[in-house]
Q: What sequence folds into this?
């Protein structure tokens, strides 16, 4: 077990997963709009399995895809965090930053607020040299988060190995954020 890292932002608490997260996580994973850029919505069992994997990785490493709690009302609204992708990606090894929020939590800046704080952990506490993100080409909302974070779109467009050839979501874009660029942008803000 590693030392647990949890994160506070002005409006959010990124924390280890709890059993009580399973029901709201299953609800957002069953929402076709939330899952529009994934092969399919998740069943309750698939959703519980993903929550358990997130929890186990945070137990093992101290960091991961954290459960995202809204401070105003204590509600679980999804996950944001850092992860080592399991798929055989053409740019592996890498650490990705990722997010998935319930639809009622979109349009309020929560994903970007949480992700900015996760980048601080990734670069300052974990000492990563680069953090990447990737998504299906058409996922404009996710790409907009990457761009707000100062990530740069790579020239690489790749076929996600977990999807079958010809699947309409198979082509993915890659965004990168090298530590030096993040540091330069962060210095520019002070
Ligand atoms: C990707 C996803 C997390 C993006 O959520 P989002 O709410 O659009 O992104 P942010 O949290 O950064 O919010 C930005 C929006 O909040 C608005 N906003 C409102 N109040 C704000 C505030 N206080 N601070 C910042 N932005 C605010 C911004 O203007 C922006 O609005 P716009 O979308 O109309 O331009 C969300 O769409 C999602 O969960 N999608 C499904 C899962 C998914 O596809 N994940 C990615 C797979 S790679």
A:
């Amino acid at each position: 077990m590693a030392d647990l890292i949890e994160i506070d932002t002005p409006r959010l608490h990124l924390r280890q997963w709890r059993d009580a997260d399973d029901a709201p996580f299953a609800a957002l994973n069953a929402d076709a709009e939330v899952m529009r850029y994934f092969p399919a919505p998740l069943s309750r069992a698939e959703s519980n399995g993903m929550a358990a994997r997130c929890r186990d990785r945070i137990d093992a490493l101290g960091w991961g895809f954290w459960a995202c709690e809204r401070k105003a009302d204590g509600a679980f609204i999804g996950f944001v965090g850092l992860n080592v992708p399991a798929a055989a990606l053409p740019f592996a090894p890498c650490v990705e930053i990722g997010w998935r929020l319930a639809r009622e939590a979109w349009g309020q800046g929560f994903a970007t607020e949480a992700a900015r704080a996760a980048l601080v952990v990734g670069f300052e506490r974990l000492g990563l040299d680069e953090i990447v993100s990737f998504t299906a080409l058409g996922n404009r909302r996710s790409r907009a988060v990457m761009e707000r974070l100062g990530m740069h779109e790579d020239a690489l467009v790749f076929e996600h190995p977990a999807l079958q050839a010809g699947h309409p979501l198979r082509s993915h874009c890659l965004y990168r954020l090298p530590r030096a660029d993040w540091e330069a942008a962060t210095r520019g803000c002070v």
Summary: The chain has a mean pLDDT of 97.
